[in-house]
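Per-residue structure
===
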Amino acid sequence: MEKHTQKPKSGFTLIELAIVATFAGLLFVLFFVQKANFDALDRDETRKTAINAMYYALEESFYKDNGYYPETISEKNITVIDPALWTDPDGYNLGDSKSSYSYEPANCNNGKCKEYILKADLEKEADYIKTNRKN
């Protein structure tokens, strides 16, 4: 009787390939979900930076020089900050209805206001709000 020896098979089975493909797919999805979260957090930090710059420009420059807050703010009357900060991460300027930034003056008389609220709508946290210092 002649013995037949089988060669060991080389390669992967379909089940092994399916498991590897599933695992790779899960890693792929996880990567893009985390990337989207990190991108949103980065946009939120950009929004906070812009609101802080506007706040300090209003308090340390405009109010100190004028003794009141303006009825509207823009790069025309608040010139001490980088003009790029007036545009939110989505490309909308403060004052645009789609902007994630807003400025709400209060207690105004002839364009001179005593109070304001600066706000950024954030994606991953509650709105970021700055109000005038108590004068």
Observations:
- The chain has a mean pLDDT of 92.
- Residues 70 and 127 are 22 Å apart (CA to CA).
